[in-house]
Design brief:
Rossmann fold, 5-stranded parallel sheet, 4-stranded parallel sheet, globular, amino acid binding, EC 2.1.3.3, ornithine carbamoyltransferase activity, Orn/put_carbamltrans
């Protein structure tokens, strides 16, 4: 089994992974090592702080050996096919994570690898991030079912995965984006096929009203740098600030997957304030990574 899209998981799978992540969090330093004697290849075409460190530490604490592989260090950078890379790595390691520019790359890795492949970010989805977000929500609310989620900003890869997760877990999500920057039609269609009813609006206040969770991300993702000036102009009012938080429900929390551009998509007052769960969310990247790797590289592999 692979984790390419959050939709590869059932609601039961997601809740089980969150429970496992909570157990790893509670027993850090005292839990077992289900990856003892196993290695993880970590392919990085894009730089990272949270993804690299959380995966490396998670694999090591589970008893595994993480191998950081930048694109320049692999023969991929000299023209070797993705399929051949996947086949070769499968002879050496017990799992592959990939943080890539194109979603097609991680799809090809999964198609040709004989070990689990985990999408650590593509231009289409970011399932590991959303699992951490869901763990953070579960730490603050009694149940995920029925939560009101307000996404403020770019309909990007993180937004895509959150929309799909909302459908799977029966959460209600409203996405507020400038015209032309909303989530992809294919994602909305897939979410509806999963039983969800995502809403897309233009006004941030409409998405924030009564929400339990407000979520945002950078206005200029990696790969969008050429559009930076235009994006900064268009997204100016799509900011999680105190005024927007005041429109949300009692006990509402704010999330941001980081890195944050303070003063743009989120203010210091919110990010450093009592309703922020941004740094809990960042920590949970490690715990949910442990849960995913223990499941796919440990339990699932042992079933074969």
């Amino acid at each position: 089994m692979n984790l390419i899209s959050i939709a590869d998981l059932s609601g039961e799978d997601i809740l089980r992974l969150i429970q496992s992540a909570e157990a790893f969090r509670a027993r850090r330093g005292r839990h077992g090592q289900p990856l003892e004697g196993k290695s993880l290849a970590m392919i990085f075409e894009k730089p990272s702080t949270r993804t690299r460190v959380s995966l490396e530490v998670a694999a090591w604490e589970l008893g595994g050996h993480p191998l950081y592989l930048s694109a320049n260090e692999l023969q991929l950078g000299r023209g070797e096919t993705i399929a051949d890379t996947a086949r070769v790595l499968s002879r050496y390691v017990h799992g592959i994570t990939a943080r890539v520019h194109s979603h097609g790359t991680v799809l090809q890795l999964a198609e040709h690898a004989s070990v689990p492949v985990i999408n650590a970010l593509s231009d289409w989805e970011h399932p590991l991030q959303i699992l951490a977000d869901l763990q953070t929500m579960s730490q603050n609310f009694q149940a995920l079912d029925g939560l009101q989620i307000g996404w403020i900003g770019d309909g990007n890869n993180v937004c895509n995965s959150l929309i799909l997760a909302s459908a799977i877990l029966r959460m209600e999500i409203t996405v507020a984006s400038p015209p032309g920057y909303g989530p992809k039609a294919e994602i909305l269609e897939e979410a509806r096929a999963l039983g969800g009813s995502p809403r897309v609006v233009e006004e941030p206040e409409e998405a924030a009203g009564g929400a339990d969770v407000l979520v945002t991300d950078t206005w200029v993702s990696m790969g969008d740098e050429a559009e930076e000036a235009e994006r900064l102009r268009v997204f100016g009012r799509y900011q999680i600030n105190s005024q927007l938080m005041d429109l949300a429900g009692d006990g509402a929390i704010a999330l941001h997957c980081l890195p944050a551009h303070r003063g743009q998509e989120i203010t210091d007052e919110v990010m450093d304030g009592p309703r922020s769960r941004v740094f809990d969310e960042a920590e949970n990247r490690m715990h949910t990574s442990k849960a995913v790797m223990a499941w796919l590289m440990g339990e699932k592999q042992n079933e074969k």
